[in-house]
């Protein structure tokens, strides 16, 4: 019987290869992918070995697959507290549907910052579920009463010992944070996420609060560093961002309320900012319809207006900015709109880099994802139009995205 698991050799011809890091077309027209990795990029001198599959790009743009660095693939509803009571098998079924949609929108890699675990990552890697390459951190770590504590105000820990939400785990004290970080890293987590300020979806905290003590943060940073991994933090306010960066947190999720001192600290520490603008627009307009509790809906306005300005100032300051979306429930379908939102204040080249090469550096996969060059993973898109001239074509994947290739396999074709 033939081995159907063998990765085919694929030669893409007739395209215009886009270098998203350089923000320029390379002049190459062909990309060869063998055993899941790019082996050659060039012109007519790049030829297919016998038996290779050929894909004619028909003069279209050929570019690296996109990266979304802030997703929750298990978040099948905006009511995260109620989802904590769902069957794990039911959650996985929803996650499979959500990830398949991401792949069809051209996101060939995603970083899950709360919810996905080693089992889900393995299912995708082994082809049991279609989806983007999944860089997971397990459950985010939160203090009692923090952004990861899903209990209503009237439920006490004495009555409810399983107060963690489906996306986070509640722990208190430096030793408990350290142990929780070690447990996540033991499973192969690519990063650890900390809740460092209040949030929208959590029922009992204020947006402007700071969360997790200095000692708790230091303990997790020490453990991640020891494993050559890193810590990223959910933080909105300037106070929470500055404290995190000074304590060694490498990435900031959201950062809507940063000030100029924050931007200086990003540059000083070589840290990354991952804004998630599309989620606030849709939480405001349709969050309630997808299960977001009224108290959380009321918080959205606090961060909605500030997000685009923070992105603009961070970009002008030269901060490493990465694309993220943070959508929940039925709002996952709006993922690609983040590209159009960012195009209001960023150039096409800046948006493209944020979703490819800069994202790869954040994920510690530079040269492997977000680029089409020998040695890189064979993830690429064939796109109608010119994203370098008008990046918003990628915000309309149903119109512009012709083919998605992951690891040298065609995983989606436009009908």
From TrEMBL:
This is Amidohydrolase family protein. Residues 61-408 form the Amidohydrolase-related domain. It comes from the Bacteria. Transmembrane segments: none annotated. PANTHER family: ALPHA-D-RIBOSE 1-METHYLPHOSPHONATE 5-TRIPHOSPHATE DIPHOSPHATASE. SUPFAM superfamilies: Composite domain of metallo-dependent hydrolases, Metallo-dependent hydrolases. InterPro entries: Amidohydro-rel, Metal-dep_hydrolase_composite, Metal_Hydrolase, Metallo-dep_Hydrolase, OTAase-like. The lineage of its organism: Bacteria, Bacillati, Actinomycetota, Actinomycetes, Kineosporiales. It comes from Pseudokineococcus basanitobsidens. Gene3D superfamilies: Metal-dependent hydrolases (3.20.20.140), Urease, subunit C, domain 1 (2.30.40.10).
């Amino acid at each position: 019987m033939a081995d159907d698991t063998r990765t085919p050799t694929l030669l893409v011809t007739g395209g215009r290869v886009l270098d998203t890091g350089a923000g320029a077309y390379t002049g190459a027209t062909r990309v060869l992918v063998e055993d899941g990795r790019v082996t050659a990029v060039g012109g007519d001198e790049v030829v297919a070995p016998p038996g290779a599959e050929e894909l004619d790009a028909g003069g279209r743009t050929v570019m690296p697959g996109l990266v979304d660095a802030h997703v929750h693939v298990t978040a099948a509803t905006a009511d995260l507290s109620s989802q904590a009571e769902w069957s794990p098998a039911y959650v996985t079924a929803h996650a499979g549907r959500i990830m398949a949609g991401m792949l069809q929108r051209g996101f060939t890699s995603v970083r899950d910052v709360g919810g996905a675990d080693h089992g889900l990552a393995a299912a995708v890697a082994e082809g049991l579920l279609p989806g983007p390459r999944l860089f997971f951190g397990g459950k985010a770590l939160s203090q009692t009463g923090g952004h990861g504590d899903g209990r209503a105000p009237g439920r006490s820990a004495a009555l409810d010992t399983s107060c963690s939400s489906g996306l986070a785990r509640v722990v208190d004290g430096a030793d408990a944070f350290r142990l929780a970080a070690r447990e996540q890293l033991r499973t192969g987590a690519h990063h650890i996420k900390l809740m460092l300020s209040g949030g929208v979806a959590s029922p009992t905290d204020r947006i402007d609060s700071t969360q997790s003590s200095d000692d708790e943060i230091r303990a997790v940073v020490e453990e991640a560093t020891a494993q050559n991994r890193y810590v990223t933090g959910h933080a909105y306010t300037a106070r929470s961002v500055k404290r995190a960066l000074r304590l060694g947190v490498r990435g900031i999720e959201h950062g809507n309320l940063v000030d100029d001192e924050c931007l200086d600290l990003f540059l000083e520490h070589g840290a990354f900012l991952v804004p998630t603008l599309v989620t606030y627009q849709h939480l405001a307009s349709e969050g309630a319809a997808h299960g977001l509790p009224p108290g959380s809906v009321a918080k959205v306005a606090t961060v909605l207006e500030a997000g685009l300005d923070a992105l603009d100032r961070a970009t002008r300051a030269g901060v490493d900015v990465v694309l993220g979306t943070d959508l929940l429930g039925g709002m996952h379908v709006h993922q690609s709109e983040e590209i159009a939102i960012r195009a209001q204040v960023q150039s096409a080249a800046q948006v493209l880099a944020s979703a490819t090469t800069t994202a790869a550096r954040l994920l510690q996969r530079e040269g492997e994802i977000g680029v089409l060059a020998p040695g890189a993973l064979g993830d690429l898109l064939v796109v109608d139009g010119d994203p370098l001239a008008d990046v918003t074509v990628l915000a309309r994947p149903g119109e512009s995205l012709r083919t998605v290739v992951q690891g040298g396999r065609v995983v989606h074709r436009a009908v």
